[in-house]
Amino acid sequence: MIITVLFYSFIAITVIQSIYYFLFLNYFSLSKPESGKLKNVPISVIVCAKNEAENLKENLPLIINQEYSNFEIVLVNDASWDDTLEVMKSFKAQNDNIQIVDVETIEQFWGNKKYALTLGIKAAKNDFLLFTDADCKPVSEYWISKMSSHFSNSKSLILGYGAYKKTKHSFLNKLIRFETVLTAIQYFAYAKLGMPYMGVGRNLAYRKELFFNNSGFMNHMSIKSGDDDLFVNEIASNKNTAICFSKDSFTVSEPKTSFKNWFIQKRRHVSTSKYYKKSHKLILGLFYISQICFWGLAITLLILNFQWQIVLALILFRFVIQLINFGYAAKKLDALDLLFLAPIFELFLISMQLSIFIANLISKPNHWK
Fold first, then answer.
1. How far apart are CA 299 and CA 303, in angstroms?
2. pTM
3. Architecture of 43-257 per CATH?
4. What is the 3-state secondary structure (H, E, C) of the chain?
5. Digits of tens for pLDDT over the chain (369 positions)?
6. Do 178 and 255 contact (CB within 8 A), yes or no?
7. 8 Å CB contact between 113 and 82
């Protein structure tokens, strides 16, 4: 009797997983990038940096040399103790379109990136804002033009894609990039479905007016992380949000190089998701729970040798849908090398998510360095 219940539960879980993957396939993986009408709206590129002297030296020239005629760069020094401020000043001395916001440590907002970003946003001369991090670089000189082209009278929030650099012969690198692609598939697809729920600060744009009309980060200022996903979760709607995933609009950054550091980073990210809207938590939670149940039930039924032909057929059916979905998306996001290891990466991520959930119950994660 129990094994029969497990069998029918497995069928139901497979159906749920298939529905999710068909939605991802339809609303992102098979969709073509929409070409926004090229504009020349004045853009303020905001880069918040804390102890990022070397990254600024390498990456800032790629922003300065963008093929866009009407932009400024706002460099926010978030109480760094290395040479970040000096590096910023050296670039400013050579470029008229750079301004610096030097943030001093204030006990009330110590370690809070949102405070530093708010000061940078206030200092920006333009209404249209484009955000990235100091350790990110645009993959092309058309980054600003591609992202800004999606602004319109109705679209005031643009979700972009922030990739991670490929490293040869590194399982961790592939795992990190797989998780990044999977996350992008979801937030792009849900945005096209009319349910935008997050964005990434490595590549995000919105209007200054939108920020202040919604009281900025005030509703979650006490939560040190979430300057990107919590803000988007709060203010994004099916009317004001657009997505941009043309390859010229990507940014790329260096991924973590140790499992420990990546685990700490993911703990910070996951810790903010409990503050998402209930509807978003429900739809995201159901996807991850169905993933866990799929693997658990599939392995159990195969071990017990119960209706193994049907179980195996359902497993293969679900994997085919997953691989087709991930393959088309990975091609868009320049990550096809991850395709055939997707099931293995999925298992690792499920284990990681369970570990993070347990770790976050025991202690709070660290935040903005």
1. 6
2. 0.92
3. Alpha-Beta Complex (3.90)
4. CHHHHHHHHHHHHHHHHHHHHHHHHHHHHCCCCCCCCCCCCCEEEEEEECCCHHHHHHHHHHHHCCCCCCEEEEEEEECCCCCHHHHHHHHHHHCCCEEEEEECCCHHHCCCHHHHHHHHHHHCCCCEEEEEECCEEECCCCHHHHHHCCCCCCCCEEECCEEECCCCCCHHHHHHHHHHHHHHHHHHHHHHCCCCCCCCCCCEEEEHHHHHHCCCCHHHCCCCCCCCHHHHHHHCCCCCEEECCCHHHCEEECCCCCHHHHHHHHHHHHHHHCCCCHHHHHHHHHHHHHHHHHHHHHHHHHHCCCCHHHHHHHHHHHHHHHHHHHHHHHHHCCCHHHHHHHHHHHHHHHHHHHHHHHHHHHCCCCCCC
5. 899 999 999 999 999 999 999 999 999 999 888 776 777 899 999 999 999 999 999 999 999 999 999 999 999 999 899 999 999 999 999 999 999 999 987 655 455 788 999 999 999 999 999 999 999 999 999 999 999 999 999 999 999 999 999 998 899 999 999 999 999 999 999 999 999 999 999 999 999 999 999 999 988 887 877 888 999 999 999 999 999 999 999 999 999 888 888 888 777 777 788 899 999 999 999 999 999 999 999 999 999 998 999 999 999 999 999 999 999 999 999 999 999 888 899 988 888 877 777 766 666 655 545
6. no
7. no
240 neighbors 232 (Cβ within 8 angstroms): no
Cα→Cα distances 26→75, 191, 315, Å:
39, 12, 21
**What is the C-alpha to C-alpha distance for residues 43 and 65, in angstroms, rounded to an integer?**
14
**Tokens (6 digits) for 217:** 């980060």
Other beta carbons less than 10 A from residue 310's beta carbon: 13
Positions of CATH 3.90.550.10 in the chain: 43-257
Between the alpha carbon of residue 153 and those of residues 71, 144, 346, the distances in Å are: 20, 18, 40
Place of tokens 């039924």: 301
